[in-house]
Amino acid sequence: MGVSTAPLADWPWETLGNLKYIMFAPFVAKAAHSHFFAARHSSTDSWWFHLVLLVLLRYLQQQAWITVSRLYFLVKKYQIQQFALSYEQVDREFHCDNHMIFQSLALAAAHVWIPAFRDLPLFNWTGLLLLVFFHVVFTEPIYYFVHRAMHSSHILFCNYHSLHHASTTPEPATAGTRTFLEELIQAALIAIPIIGVMALGGGSVVMIYAYLLSFDFFKQLGHCNFEIVPEALFKAFPPLRYLVYTPSYHSLHHTELETNFCLFMPLFDVLGGTLSKHTRAVHKSLRQGREEEVPSFVFLAHCIDILSSIHVSFVSRTFSSVPYTISLSFLYMYVFWPLGLVAFFALWAWGRVFVAYQYMLRGLHAQTWVVPRYGIHYFLPFGLDSINNIIEKAILQANEMGVKVISLAALNKNEALNGGGLLFVKKHPDLRVRVVHGNTLTAAVVLNELPAEVEEVFLTGATSKLGRAIALYLCRKGVRVLMLTSSRSRYESILSEAAAEHRRNLVHVTKYQAGQYCKRWIIGKWVTEREQGFAPVGTHFHQFVVPPVQEVRSDCTYGKLVGMKLPKDVAGVHTCEYINDRGVVAACHAGGLLHALEEWSHHEVGSIDVERIDTVWQAALSRGFTQV
């Protein structure tokens, strides 16, 4: 975390990064050995199995809270704070599981050093009742006073507790974000009931499972940022208001700071005179539900492959906060590949459109919807009608809701699929929502990547929407364009659109060898390693193909996917879009946003209007979009 130089602020394994998980290795090895290799299984051996299982259950529970809290379409009605999440918050809360590691180490040490931990029964009813007693009588009040002290002392708050309060929009991960000193205190408070129960002979394995899982559950409940507790529960049993807190109750502590200090029981805030006067009103208003906001702009995205489908905020908040790549830090994502495969077949059968995440752009409410199809689906002829039906339903739903602009991601506007969205506009001529492919801005970005002195380019995908527009624009500028296509008729069709004096600049080629003397390749169609081999040394590969080509030439340079950096005042972006850097979106995505911001009234479908390329580019720059 590295937020303070104060003693005990940093965790002991701070410098290890993700290598900290190696500390679980002895537990896993011991559990595996005792269950699969040992001749006899003792209760001592089974403890290591329970320790590993407990850790897995705690991680699964945390993941469940994270997933639900980030499924906007589920929680939007009862969302508490609407401040935007950010990359900074994700980074700050990256190691929100440190407490699980520490508490696991503490349990392992207790098993080794405290005899009572070595022969625990599986279950003990009396122990569970005693556990509740010790928690209410000792843990809750001590936590309350320690928590108040953290706020009352400027030194304690600034050096330790401010880390937790740096997140104005709490998430389940915020619950586990704290300094090492705070964890030492909290671990001691958790230990009081466990040791107390064991001292009275009521200890059991189930007791430890129940207490730690319940503790995590209520902590994450308080930080989930949507009001899940129904008001009817308190009306049916009024004393419950003082026994169990709610997400809105704890959210007030993050905004008012000097109220609602309790751990889980508001009773102690009542007794201490720190109960927020807004508690009941906020809970009641949130449970009545917010009026749903209609987004001004929707981007209809899609998955590329199985692993990239996991690169979404509601699956992995950390993995999705960096550009998509399987680096050493994220090798664990391969563990989830089977889940992605299951989702692959499930979405094949039951594909629906659902909201994945939202962000705000200068007050312009924007959302990203996902067409649940993987890249391979778009190249299976018998699946095209199914995909178009899903896209059409999304457009009609957006139209009914009052959305102003819906923009189609790369493969959702494929020419062979629906003619760049033209199919839907022709089928539904009375659409109020503007359908946009955003490719005018994509073409503008590619063209502005080229140096002013360029004289010749080699263009693959030359007869696609983008290829056509790029070729026609460049030939007007006196640039010679080697148009790679096997279709003479499509080349001649584009040639006929050029003015007579510019046609000499459009050259039809049918082989990659034709680009062997050209150092500017614009890739609009997948290029293999062998085909890249025809490019001369020092070639720069510009590309608008999805997915991007493999970078196999060390003696050449490669441009990234065509994208634009969002304006600086954009708030709420906390997920990277595929392989793009933070704050960068696909140019077609930016083109749809621009269409909404400029309030243009036309559909942008079918062929690109070459006359509008410069207009769109200047509009994007004036709005604060910048070239990557």
Describe how the helices and strands are arranged.
Layout (H helix, E strand, L loop, with lengths): L24 H12 L6 H28 L1 H4 L11 H6 L5 H16 L11 H28 L1 H12 L14 H20 L5 H18 L8 H6 L10 H10 L10 H6 L6 H10 L8 E6 L34 H14 L3 E8 L2 E8 L12 H18 L3 E4 L6 H4 L3 H6 L6 E3 L2 H11 L6 E4 L5 H12 L3 E5 L3 H10 L8 E4 L10 E4 L5 H4 L7 E4 L13 E2 L4 E3 L18 E3 H12 L14 H10 L3 E2 L1
Parallel strand pairs: 1-3, 1-4, 4-5, 6-7, 6-9, 7-8, 9-10, 10-11
Antiparallel strand pairs: 2-3, 12-13, 12-14
Membrane topology: Multi-pass membrane protein
Main location: membrane
GO cellular component, one term: membrane
Please tag this protein with its features.
Leucine Aminopeptidase, subunit E, domain 1, alpha/beta, elongated, oxidoreductase activity, six-stranded parallel beta sheet, 23 helices, CER1-like_C, transmembrane helix, single chain
Count of alpha and pi helical runs: 23
Largest sheet: 6 strands, parallel
Major β-sheet strand ordering: 8-7-6-9-10-11
Share in β-strands: 5-15%
- Helicity range: 40-55%
What average pLDDT do the residues reach? 90
Radius of gyration: 29 Å
Query: What is the 3D shape?
Result: elongated
| CA(first)-CA(last) distance | 30 Å
Outline the low-pLDDT stretches: 351-364
The structural domain count equals: 3
How many individual β-strands? Answer: 14
- Which structural class fits the helix and strand makeup? alpha/beta
Family: Belongs to the sterol desaturase family.
Membrane topology: Multi-pass membrane protein
Domain Very-long-chain aldehyde decarbonylase CER1-like C-terminal: 457-626
Keywords: Membrane, Transmembrane, Transmembrane helix
